[in-house]
Amino acid sequence: MKKGSQMAKQEKFLIVLNLSKSEHFHQVRQQATDYHQANSRCRA
Fold first, then answer.
1. pLDDT tens for each residue of the chain, 44 residues long
2. Can you spell out the DSSP letters for 1-44?
């Protein structure tokens, strides 16, 4: 029983970790897109 709850805790931690990772990745990608758009606006 105790082992099971520990596994569930670890699983929840991994899910949270993955969520924060993908959130960070999305922000970085958004910044790159904004930067690219700003560059193409300057050139045009």
1. 577 788 889 899 888 888 888 888 889 899 989 988 888 877 65
2. -HHHHHHHHHHHHHHHHHHHHHHHHHHHHHHHHHHHHHHHHHH-
Question: What is the distance between the alpha carbons of residues 22 and 28, in angstroms, rounded to a whole number?
Answer: 10
- pTM higher than the cut 0.90: no
Cα separations in angstroms, 21 against 15, 32, 35, 37: 10, 17, 21, 24
Instruction: State the greatest distance between any 2 C-alpha atoms of the chain, in Å, as a whole number.
Output: 65
